[in-house]
Structure formats: C-alpha cells, structure tokens
Specification:
The protein has 219 residues and is α/β, with parallel strands linked by helices. It contains 6 helices and 11 strands. It has one domain: 3-Layer(aba) Sandwich (Dihydrofolate Reductase, subunit A). A 9-stranded mixed beta sheet has the order 5-6-4-3-7-1-8-11-10, with helices on both faces. The two termini are 13 Å apart. The mean pLDDT is 93.
Length: 219
C-alpha cells in the first residue's frame, strides 16, 4: 500500500529545521547549513552533486535510500524557492539546476497558479494552489502505487501531520543548537501522539529516528 513519507529530514537538538533570517543568499537561515553537513560527508551526498569521495556506512545507507520506492514528491513553496507572490513564469525553476535529483513528478504548494515546468531527467514541477489535500491526491495518482515523499520544509510537514496524513517519518537529529528559526514540532495538536519509534540508531555524526503512525505495518 502506498504511504506518505518523510525521509532524511534534519533538525537540531532544539528542534529547528532552519535557522533565523532565511533569505536568498542564506536559504536555511543562520547556522542552518550545519543541519546538512552529514549528507555531504557521505558517498551518496557527494555523488548527488557530482563529486567523488565521501564516507559509506550508516549515514550513507539512509541517504542513499531516500528515493527507494518513491513515485512523487510534495514540497512547500519555500523549499522550491525564495520568491513570494505571483510567479514570474520566466524566472525561478528551483534550487537544483536543469536536472533536479527527483526524476519524478513534484507537487509544489502555493497560493498562486503557475503552469507546470518540465525539467531534464524526468522531473516535472506541478504547482498546486488549492490545498494540501489536493496535492496529496495528485501526488498519489502520479506515484501510481509507489510511495509519496513530503520533502519539506517544516511548515509543509506540520500541515500534513496536523491532517494525520503522514505514515512514517525519518528524522535526523544533528547535535547542534540553533537557538531560533523554524521548528518542526510546533502547534501540532493531539495527532502527534499517534506515532511510535520503530528505529533509533546513531552514527558518529547524527542520530536517525524513524517514527510510524500507530497501527501501520512497517519494515
């Protein structure tokens, strides 16, 4: 059965997924890039950006599995890019260049309509301006029996958690304190109590925690 998943989502010890003062030149805010240093230390993380080297082992195993069984992705507008308001059709096409790493349909939550953008490598960005449920339906249809990934950011994941739609989360706890920014676990209500820990393992760099919604069959 298809599931709605969160994978490899990094947060600080004090619960932040991004630092203060997010802007175009600093999209993850002050100190936010530290949350992802573990990715770019791995072999898979280096390969994703066209570099050689990197470590293998636990962190690489988790990151290399990020797209396994996934047929579509949902993300918020803030993850797609720094612009706000009506779209300029001739400008921003994402942070990832001409060949984004998704290679499937990606559904971007927005308040403003925009035509789909077809990129190299099989990625097409679709812009959904009628809510998270509409994006959920479209993504599961596009996934055609495979899983759907909620890529982020934190605000988008919170919306799906409040709607009790996320089946499993893999969080990566990075041993830093940001002191401010955008929290993942905030104003979620009672639905968050319906998750149980199904895996908890540590590498020298980070702690990996997998949470599943109560009552689901998990591997």
């Amino acid at each position: 059965m298809s599931r709605l998943l969160v994978r490899n989502f990094s947060i600080s010890l004090d619960g932040y997924a991004a630092g203060l003062h997010q802007e175009l030149d600093n999209p993850l805010g002050v100190g936010g890039m530290q949350l992802h240093e573990w990715v770019f230390a791995t072999h898979s993380g280096n390969r994703m950006i066209g570099r050689e080297g990197g470590t293998k082992g636990l962190d690489d195993d988790f990151f290399s599995n990020r797209a396994s069984g996934v047929g579509a992705t949902i993300m918020g507008r803030n993850m797609f890019g720094p612009t706000r308001g009506p779209w300029d059709e001739h400008e921003w096409t994402g942070w990832w260049g001409e060949d984004p790493p998704f290679h499937h349909s990606v559904f971007v939550l927005t308040h403003h309509p925009r035509r789909p953008i077809e990129m190299q490598g099989g990625t097409t960005f679709y812009f959904v301006n009628d809510g998270i449920e509409a994006a959920h339906r479209a993504a599961f249809e596009a996934a055609d029996g495979r899983d759907v990934l909620v890529g982020g950011g934190a605000a988008t994941i919170r919306q799906y958690l409040r709607a009790a739609l996320i089946d499993e989360m893999h969080l990566v706890i990075v041993p830093i304190v940001l002191g401010g920014g955008e929290r993942l676990f905030e104003d979620l209500g009672p639905e968050i109590s319906n998750y149980r820990c199904i895996e908890h393992v540590c590498s020298p760099a980070v702690t990996h925690v997998r949470l599943a919604r109560t009552g689901l069959d998990v591997d």
